[in-house]
Amino acid sequence: MLYQLTSIDPKDFSRNCTLPGENETKVNLEELKTSVLYSGPVDPSEWVGLRKSSPLLVYLRNNLLMLAILAFEVTIYRHQEYYRCRNNLTAPVTKTIFHDITRAHLDDGLVNCVKYFINYFFYKFGLETCFLLSVNVIGQRMDFYAMIHAFWLIAVLYRRRRKAIAEIWPKYCCFLTCIITFQYFLCIGIPPAPCKDYPWRSGNANFNSNIIKWLYFPDFIVRPNPVFLVYDFMLLLCASLQRQTFEDENKAAVRIMAGDNVEICMNLDAASFSQHNPVPDFIHCRSYLDMYKVIIFSYLFWFVLTIIFITGTTRISIFCMGYLVACFYFLLFGGDLLLKPIRSILRYWDWLIAYNVFVITMKNILSIGACGYIESLIQKSCWVIQAFSLACTVKGYHIPTSNPDCKLPSGEAGIIWDSICFAFLLLQRRVFMSYYFLHVVADIKASQILASR
After folding, report:
1. How confident is the prediction for the chain on average, in pLDDT?
2. Piezo TM25-28 domain: which residues (predicted)?
């Protein structure tokens, strides 16, 4: 607000930068005129975060919103603390909406089941939510840092077991914190007041604007998109909550209320274990909740195979061939596969998840060609574009118009269907790891025995 005083005039300390010569840069004149350095007087206070604004309320609305939210949060917590002290109440073990709903009420009916998942959805499915947000970051960005996110996703999924993932999770949270901070400094960049451009804009550099944008380099012409940091922050937020969940899983009071997240034994034989199953049998549909359980645990497997088939047929490329092979394999041997021990089922299913993540990673790596070197690929290697369905799916890149001899497969690019497939593969893996699934396997086994008799 002090900067809005009429006595402060930005023209007094602004500076005009001179255009570089033809030998000093490879950037054309029209592109140079869009640069922060040469589009007008350079105000050094804008780099700090100060600028003249009218009306002032629009300029200050985010700060006022932050102040209002913080005041609201303090008011709520102080009121809760005062109310509990006045009525001699203790704070609940878990911060939930329905305090009287525990794991024991999960199978009591559809209403109690909904209440339970309102309370403990992230406790049960927070890890899968983090994986989906990681894939969302990759799909929204498709740049160098998205590739780093993909490698970290592979490293975390490689651990397979929940307990092993919990050991590496603090390092993953540290990585997200560091990479967001580093990218924020890249978005700020160097001050434009000295009129010094970045080295990748010099005459000796071989970087074009598309490559600079893909590498997420600071630049005065193609500035890094700060909206990407919002996706990274949402991933960091959920990863931090998941780290707290891993810590809560080791508390006895939380396990009594929300249940444990201990994974099922890998060597378990479902048919022989059904009579000792700790969860009630739902096969005979005694309630509406049992009907939903039958749909999820009995028929979700075949629905996921349908999603895999759609993923492989909506886009025509080399990567889609793997989805079709996997789909037909599980359609051929899926019935027998469900009767095998859990370890055997997960071995095949984890290979399918690994291939899905591999495809997502490769599409992200190949995006440097689809977004950065697309002009040279159209002229020299059109077969690469058609084989891998290369097309830039992120806005802001300069993409040439399609050549009649080499059409860009814009409608077949992207990882939307790969992400949908990834979500259903993770959901089906949780079904395989559930005690409810053992009732389904026992019912299939009993049906086969009855049919043979």
Report:
1. 86
2. 270-453
pTM of the model: 0.88
Report CA-CA distances (Å) from 224 to 79, 147, 184. 43, 16, 9
| pLDDT of 254 | 84
Q: What percent of the chain is predicted at pLDDT more than 90?
A: 30
